[in-house]
Amino acid sequence: MSFWVLQLTSKKKTAMSENNSSLEGQRMMYALVESYAQSNQTRRDFCAAHSLPLSTFGYWQRKYRRQKL
């Protein structure tokens, strides 16, 4: 019986870790979107400077705008 409790506890910790890391990733990307908005760079130059694919950065820009509305 303790095996199942241990297994369930492990899954919860993993799920919580994934949530924390995805939240950290979201915060990091939103910070980059805000940084870009204040920069004088083109989106292409900004993405190149930060090693980001344009499509990925565009995704996060859209997500950021939708959340801020």
Walk me through what this model shows.
This protein has 69 residues and is mostly helical. The chain has one domain (2-68). The protein is 86% helix and 0% strand. It contains three helices and no strands. The chain has helices at residues 2-38, 43-49, 54-68. Helix 1 (2-38) crosses helix 3 (54-68). Mean pLDDT is 84; it is low at 1-9.
Percent of residues in helices comes to over 70%
> Kindly state the mean pLDDT as a whole number?
84
Low-confidence stretches: 1-9
The tally of helices reads 3
Q: How big is the Rg?
A: 18 Å
Q: How many independent structural domains?
A: 1
Q: How much β-strand is present in the residues?
A: under 5%
Largest sheet: none
Structural class label? mainly alpha
Nutshell version of this structure?
The protein has about 70 residues and is an all-alpha fold. The protein contains three helices and no strands.
Question: What distinguishing features does this structure have?
Answer:
globular; mainly alpha; 0% strand; disordered N terminus; 69 residues
Q: How are the secondary structure elements laid out?
A:
Layout: H1 2-38, H2 43-49, H3 54-68
Helix pairs in contact: 1-3
